[in-house]
User: What shape does this take?
Amino acid sequence: MGIMHLRHTNSLALSHFQQATLSYGQACYVEAIQHYLAGLRLGAVQHHYIYADLAKAYEMVGEWDTALECLDNALRLCPDSPTALRRKARILDEKACYDGLVCSEDLRKPPPQEFLERLQLDTTTPAKHVVDSEFFNLTCHSTMTPQTVWNICRLIHRTYTELGEILGYYPIFPVPISITNTNGTTASQRSLPKWASGCYDGSIRLLYCAVGEPVLGILYALLRHEWVHLLVYHLTNGHCPVWLDEGLARSIARPMFQSERFDLQQTVQTKRLLSFAALNEPFSQLPPKYRKLAYIQSAAVVEYLTQRFGFPEIRKLLHQLGNGVPIETAIEQAFGLTLQEIPLVGTP
Assistant: This one.
C-alpha cells in the first residue's frame, strides 16, 4: 500500500487512507473502498498510489471495470508505475477468466414461474432465500434478486453434472450450501478465516464481499472448488493428501492466472519450491507467505498429472486412496511414477 507516500496529504484524508488499509487487511473490502473514496474527495487526487490501492479493493469485490478505471487514473498520474501496470495486467486476466466461466446470455433468461412459486423467502433479519432441490439445499444469507438465486441454482446444477463427469462421482444426498455476503461483517464475526472464501466441512459454505449482488463468475469458481473437495472426500474416504485435494480443487475450479504462473516461475528461479511434505500440511497452518504458493504449486502439479495421464487415471488414483492404499503406492499404480519423480513445479 502507498500510505507512506502521503506526507503532504491533509490529516483527515490521511486518516481515511489509513483506515482503508486496515479495512483491506481485515478483508472488509467494501469498507476499504468507502474510506479510499472519502479520502480522495478531500483532495488527495495527485497520489497515484491511492488509485492503485483503490483498484485492488475493487478487484477483491469483482468490480473489474471500476478497478481498471482507477488504474487508468493511476497511470495518467504516473505512466510508468510498475505497481499499476502489474495490477492492470492481473485484473484484465482475472476478468477474462471469471467472465469466461459463465455465459451472460444464458444467465439473462428469467426464472420460470414454478421456481418463483417454490422459492422460499425467510423474512427474518437478515432476510434469506431457501431453495430445496433434488441435488442440493441452498440458503442465501444475503439480499438477492430471484434472478440471481435462479442463476446460482443453475450453476449448482451445472457443477453437479460437469464435476460428476470429471471425477466419476455424484453425491447420494442433497448437498447443503450456504452463501453469505460478508459486507459489513468484522473479521471476528466471520465464520471462516479472512483469507478464505469457501469451505467444505460436510456442507459447502461460500462467502463473498459486495455492496449488492455477488459476481457470479467468482461465486461459480468458489462453488466448483468446494464441490471438488466434497467429491474427493467421498471418493477417498477422507484419505487424500492435501496437495492432491487442493490441487484438484484449484485446477478444476478455474484456469490458472498468468500472474500465478509468473509467481511460480519466480519461485523456481529462487529455488523456494515447497516439498511434497510441506504441501501435505493443512494450508491453513502454513505461514501466510507460503499459503498462496502452496495453492499455486499444488494446482500446477495436478495440472501436469491430468494433462499427461488424463482424468481416468486420476479417478483410479482417488479410488485407490479410498481403498486405503498409501499415496506412494497409489501413484505408482496409477501413473507408473514414484512420488519423487513428479515435478514439484508441475512441468519437468
